[in-house]
Amino acid sequence: ALPRDLEGRHVVVSAGGTREDLDPVRFLGNRSSGRQGWALARVAAQRGARVTLVAGHTADLGAPAGVDVVAAGTAVAMEAAVRGAAVDADAVVMAAAVADFRPVDTAADKIKRGDAEPAPLRLTQNPDILAGLVADPPRSGQVVVGFAAETGDADGDVLHHGRAKLARKGCDLLVVNAVGDGKAFETTDNAGWLLARDGGEDELPFGSKALLASRIWDAVVPRLR
Ligand code: C5P
User: Fold this and answer.
1) Residues of the chain under the 50 pLDDT cut
2) How many other CB atoms are there within 10 angstroms of residue 103's CB atom?
3) Which residues of this UniProt protein bind CTP (predicted)?
4) Which of 81, 93, 123, 146 is the most exposed place for a label (fewest CB within 10 A)?
5) Residues annotated as binding site?
6) For residues 103 and 123, is the Cβ–Cβ distance under 8 A?
7) Residue 82 C-alpha to ligand 1 middle, in angstroms?
8) What pLDDT is attached to residue 156?
């Protein structure tokens, strides 16, 4: 049986990918399935937490039992949803794949193929939700967890990028996944490292996303205020 060590806690988990509209039928998106965030939400509920799952676009996963789901399809919408849910949260886990950029303009009508060269796509930066939670916490003392999907030729490259990202984002914990080889996106399994701001570094062996979720909550619990 799972421990009930999140009893009386409220946790917010973001999951899935954002879509940034180019026109009514096209968007900039990513391959996030939402499965890791779903697993985090499900496991937290099983461990006794009240869970708010801020859901971007995902595979067809159905709603996890006993979890409040808030839909947020774009980075801007997700920022508002996460910050709103986090005002009374003990922990926030940003498992969502948030687009770093969005189109400057969204065409009201479908963009047509013309004879001329296509206009260059102009992009602008989205808010960094995770960095914003650290810089301006909706509630003081909450534990903030980020994710990093990194590519690299060797584990060392991936870890190196992960440590730099942890320092840059300033969150308490960072889950680093190597992308590719049946890991991270569009898969049911995952592996990686759990890096802590206080210097901790644990390997997360290859396993189900539920197992990884348990390991992540194991690291969050002792850090809760
Ligand atoms: O910088 P990068 O996108 O790799 O960072 C990934 C982490 O930052 C994830 O936890 C993701 O949810 C979060 N993120 C965010 N807002 C963005 C981009 C990423 O919160 N605009």
Assistant:
1) none
2) 18
3) 100, 110, 127-130, 147, 165, 169
4) 123
5) 100, 110, 127-130, 147, 165, 169
6) yes
7) 13
8) 79
Per-residue pLDDT, 186: 65
Q: Residues within the annotated binding site for CTP?
A: 100, 110, 127-130, 147, 165, 169
Whole-complex ipTM:
0.97
Atom of ligand 1 nearest to the CA of 127: 21
76 lines ligand 1 (CB under 6 A): no
Point out the residues that are catalytic. 30
Can you give the pTM of this predicted structure?
0.95
R_g of the chain computed on alpha carbons: 18
For the stretch 129-158, pLDDT in tens is 999 999 999 999 999 999 998 877 777 788
Virtual torsion, Cα 24, 126, 55, 131, nearest 10 deg: 180
